[in-house]
Amino acid sequence: MTENVNENTEAKIVAMQREQGPLLEVKDLQVDFTTDDKRAVHAVRDASFSVYPGQWVAIVGESGSGKSTSAMAVLGLLPGTGHIVGGSIKLEGQEIAGFKPKEFDKLRGSKMGLVPQDPMSNLNPVYRIGTQVKEALKANGMDVSHEKRSALAKALAGDEVAVKGNDDETFIGSAQLPALLEDAKSALTAIGVSGEKFDNVMQYFKDEWVPGSETRWRVADDLIKAGVSDDKAWEIAKKHVTGSTMEDRIAGLLSEAGLPDAATRARQYPHEFSGGMRQRALIAIGLACRPDLLIADEPTSALDVTVQKKILDHLHMLTDSLGTAVLFITHDLGLAAERAQHIVVMYKGQVVESGPSLEVLQHPQHPYTKRLVAAAPSLASQRIISAKERGEDADALLEHQVKGEATLEKSEHIITVDHLTKEFKLPRKKEMFKAVDDVSFSVKRGTTLAIVGESGSGKSTVANMVLKLLEPTSGTVTYEGKDISSFKGKELLDFRRHVQPVFQNPYGSLDPMYSIYRSIEEPLRIHKIGDKKSRAKRVRELLDMVEMPESVMTRYPNELSGGQRQRIAIARAMALDPDVIICDEAVSALDVLVQDQVLRLLNDLQAEKGLSYLFITHDLAVVRQIADEVVVMQHGRLVEHATTDEVFDHPKMQYTRDLLDAIPGGKLQLGLD
Amino acid sequence: MGKYLLRRVLQMIPVVLGTTLLVYALVFALPGDPVKAMFGDKPVNEAVAAQIRAEYNLDKPFIIQYLLFLKNALTLNFGQTFAGQPITAEIARAFPVTIRLGIMAFFFEAIFGIIFGIISGLKKGKWYDTVILIVSLLLISVPTFVTGFAGQYFLGVQWSLIPVTAGNDPGFFDLLFPAMVLGSVSMAYIIRLTRSEISSNIAEDYVRTARAKGMSNKSVMVRHVLRNSLIPVVTYLGQDLGALMGGAMITEQIFNIHGVGFLTYQSILKGESNLVVSIVTLLMLVFVVCNLIVDLLYAALDPRIRYA
Question: Which sequence ranges are marked TM in the entry (chain B) (predicted)?
Answer without folding.
Answer: 12-30, 99-119, 131-155, 175-191, 275-301
